[in-house]
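Record 1 of the preview.
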Amino acid sequence: MPASYEISFVASLIQKCTAVNCLKKARQLHALILTNAVAPVCHQSPYLHNNLLSMYARCNSLEDAKQVFDKVPKRNLVSYNALIAVYSRAPDHADKVFGLITQMAFECKRPNGSTFTSLLQAASSVEDPLMGSSLHAQVVKFGFLDDARVQTSLLGMYSNCGDLESASKAFGCIGDKDAVAWNSIILGNLKNDNIEQGLRIFCDMVSSGVIPTQFTYSMILNGCSRMGNHRFGQVIHAQVIISNTEADLPLQNALLDMYCNCGDPETAFYVFSRIENPNLVSWNSIISGFSENGDGMMALHLFIRLKSFSLPKPDEYTFASVISAASALLASNCGKPLHAQVIKAGFDLSVFVATTLVSMYFKNGDAESAEMAFKRILKRDVVLWTEMIMGFSRMADGEGAMRLFLEMCQEGHMIDSFSLSGIISACADLAMLKQGEMIHTLAIKTGQDVEMSVCGSLVDMYAKNGDLHAAQSIFFPLSNPDLKCWNAMVGAYSHHGMAEEALKLFEEILKHELRPDHVTFLSLLSACSHGGFIEKGKLFWNYMKEDGCVPGPKHYSCMVSLLGRAGLLDEAEEIINESPYSKDHLELWRTLLSFCVTSRNLEKGINAAEQVLKLDPKDNGTHILLSNLYAVTERWEGVAEMRRKIRGLMLEKGPGLSWIEAKNNIHVFTSGDQSHPQADEAQAELQRLRENMIKSVEDELDLNIAA
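->
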């Protein structure tokens, strides 16, 4: 058998082996060639070595490919192109190709179009615009600027490096633009958050007569998903159907994701139900879609359905989505069984899953379980720490939030705007001005004081601590405050009884083309209530509902207060009756009852009290208000009866707690409490103050008499 035939035969075996990406067989074949040389020419043939190199490249064995390259006796351009292609496809090794350029020049090897295509791909992988520009110059120098593949690679490189201006120029130089070129320029714009331009280029692509590919549609749907552009996404879906484009799994998943992110889980479920073999990406998208759109029960149902199949197995993203869905449900019914599933699947040490578990437990008011899940994680990231800090802050446990923040700082974690915002909110809710000022200093030191979330929290903290001037000094220098900052300042004015200033800020919000949210309207209604602006309060109430902002229990409470202060008790009662919270939030009826006392309206007051006592017969506050109502209407028998009930309730109910901060410590106490270790000192100081006050009064009387 001729040697040349044997060499060709071995090469064909190598190609067959690389086609199945079987590294083990590739090495076996390589060993066979080394130990049983078919001819002396075998070791001198670049053709054979190039095929071996290509074989290892396609088997993703960079180390073997490099060893073969180093042993090629007569390296030619194909040898270099094969190794450069290997490195360019591996992001972790792409920078190694640039050393091969110098080696090629030293061996007097002239690059061709394939060389530049791979080199540009490598520059794109490492996102090195300087090297990319240098390669562009080499492309011009060697005369490959008209090569369609090189032009497309240039376009892809500039797009991936974020240089959209150069990418557009490269795109304009391509004469006959194919789908690959259009996809590259669209992808570049989408990747660099220039989504609207990407969608416009897609429209130009369709207008030019180039048929979009499945990848094109997937990209555009991803852009629609990120923008929340439901209408354009529907148009793309229709075009996919009309053009008879075969929807592969990535395209179906892109459709699914678009509908979920655009708030249309029903259509998303229709798309999901038509996927023949959904993969885990499909399942995760539909579960998170229902979870994020408030249908936790459907998300749980889909998770149970996924668990009924042997494959695919849920991953940490699946568990994170379904745990988030369970957050709105009782932890004992759903959250804790899911936590058990997480442990069973081995994801209990995942930071990503732990963060959602912590969030779920806090939303259920279970700080103990949240802390247990938190402590199981050894390598905690700043997101998990922030979730813990925010959780304690939302539960009004400022001490716990501060403790965790200090631990986080001691462990050397990078403090971000979210963690700072959370701890500042804790300082605001507990009126800890000194700690708030210290955190403010830290925010300035770390450069986070320019972040809008931090600015908004600082405005809120200073306002709640009574320092309106400090709140103003933070807010007004901001060049372009976001809605949270505006809300904080509106709330600050409302909190300080400056209703007119709060209303003026609302006008500024509209001028800045921001859409007010439920927080904005809550502050405005509170300002109108305290300022006595009845008509403006009604105007904001109607504006809010017309704008699609659904009133919550606090909004209804503000309206009842607004109308009650004006003596409009009939309208206040009507507001309560039309609200969906009349049976769940007894505070609405209590508020009405308090204004019935002021207006001496016995009939409405008794009705309001009955609504509360029907659900909570031991509500002490309602009995006190009812006693006051009987007193102002001179129903003394009712007063006596109420006071008897109040005395009985006082025996059953635990005392209310108060606290004071002194020398960085928070001291909790109750009325008549003598258990504090410094109680005697406090009593002695109180006695000293009394004596001083008596002495001051006596001195003043002596002066008056002398005068």
